[in-house]
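Support request, please re-run this one:
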Amino acid sequence: MTALPSRRRPPGRYDEPSKLGQRAVAVLLSLLFLALLAAIGSTLRSRFGGDAVRGQVLGYDVRSDAEVVIDLEVSKSAGRQAYCVVRARGRDGTEVGRDVAVLDAVGSPERTARGTFSLATTARAVTGEVRACTSKPITRGDAAP
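Re-run finished. Output below.
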């Protein structure tokens, strides 16, 4: 019996394929998976977790150079309180008024609370807006910029 000669590859011509591409794809897929998990966790936390209080302006009325009336609505967990920092801005974008709006100081079982607030301004306002809302009691001092 004769032995068949073994085939040898010429050196440097047929190197093993690089694994760099496979590693790059694996890292990219891992990062995408982690980003997806973070997005799902954030969505679940904002929807079901914590004491998130979200406020929105339903409307505002500039009554004079020294007053703007803001209509607010907040979404909150049942039984939680609702405090919002409201502010007014002038034509050039500067803040001309800021105060704390108390929408639900007792923590009623409703999930929404509404209120109308008169905000004193130092100059004519062109808009009224909600800066931030929380379920923890805040004062005017806490609302300072």
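Residues 20-48 form the longest helix (29 residues). Residues 30 and 82 are 40 Å apart (CA to CA).
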